[in-house]
Every structure is written in structure tokens, then in C-alpha cells.
Amino acid sequence: MGVFKAAAIQMRSGERPERNAIELERLVREAAGQGASYIQTPEMTGALVRDKKAASFTSEDKDIIVGTARRLARELGVHLHIGSTAILRADGKLANRALLFGPDGATLASYDKIHMFDVDLDNGESWRESATYEPGTEAVVTTIEG
Fold first, then answer.
1. Backbone phi, then psi, for 69, in 5-degree steps?
2. Domain chopping of the chain, boundaries
3. pTM of the complete model
4. Which of 118, 132, 120, 119 is nearest to 49 (CA)?
5. How much is the mean pLDDT over the chain?
6. Which residue did the predictor score with more confidence, 117 or 67?
7. CATH of domain 6-131
8. In this structure, are strands 6-8 and 38-40 parallel, antiparallel, or unpaired?
9. DSSP strand pairing (107-112 vs 94-101)
10. SS3 of 84, please?
11. DSSP 3-state assignment of 39?
């Protein structure tokens, strides 16, 4: 059995997916260049938005982050796990979706976040992920080669 090298990428995703895709590509290339065969990005890699009216969302097949990740996994021959990105589902609702791409660019696993982050902070700030996203219903486990 050989050495398994993984990379955890830290991003500072903003509200513009096209900018986040550029940073995603830079960081994934850096990780792969250092020998990582499994690369993990954080939740909300695509865009960090609190108000679904303030952003435009697309289906998985048109999403810039999904397309960029799929291409990079295939080009670099790595497993690339997108911690999550906002995806417009067929029913018009949003999913906070994590995706795992194999070295051939194929989707190996897809998971819609089940437990929403709803909290009221002591300083009066309130976060209601459930106001924007529809929770998933199934936990997902998969096996990767290597």
C-alpha cells in the first residue's frame, strides 16, 4: 500500500462564484502539485450568501464551481471533494450540496446537507440556513481507490 496524501484547502469564498472558481483552481493546482491525491474544500466553496434573493443560482450541470471542480479532477487525476456549493434543484429549491469527483471527473458522491445551521447569537445576530436551503434526506458514504 502506498502513501495517501490529502489536502484540506481553506478558502475565503465571497458572493461571486466566478471569483471563487478562480481561487479554487489556484488552490487545487497547488495541492495537486504538492502530491495530494485527495483534495477537500470547505462548505460554501461556491459562494457565501445569506440572502437567496441577492444571488443567482444555477442547476448542478450549469454551476461554475461544479464545472471547474470536475475539469480539475479529470485534468489533475485527483479525487476532489467540494465541501459544498449552492445548487438550484429541479423543484426550484436550493440545496447546500457537497460533491466528490473522481480522477476521471465523474461524480462519485453527492450529498445535500441535512442539518441546517439555525442559531441566534448573544449579540442579536441571527443565522437561518433553513430560510435559504432545503435540507437533504440521506447521509452518503462512498469508497475511493488509492
1. -65, -45
2. 6-131
3. 0.90
4. 132
5. 91
6. 67
7. 3.60.110.10
8. parallel
9. antiparallel
10. strand
11. strand
Q: In this structure, what C-alpha cell is assigned to residue 78?
A: 485527483
The number of residues making up the chain comes to 146
Give the ranges where the chain is alpha helix by DSSP (H): 17-33, 64-76
C-alpha cell at 43: 462548505
Burial class (CB in 10 A: 0-12, 13-18, 19+), 143: exposed
pLDDT score at 72: 99
Q: In Å, how far are 110, 114, 142 from 138, measured between CA atoms?
A: 10, 7, 13
Of 144, 146, 89, 143, give the one whose Cα is nearest residue 112. 89
Residue 115 is classified by DSSP as S
Q: Which three cell numbers stand for residue 56?
A: 443567482
Closest CA to 73 of 113, 108, 118: 108
**pLDDT tens-digit readout, 77-130:** 999 999 999 999 998 889 999 999 999 999 999 999 999 889 999 999 988 888
**CB-based contacts of 3, cutoff 8 Å, min separation 6:** none
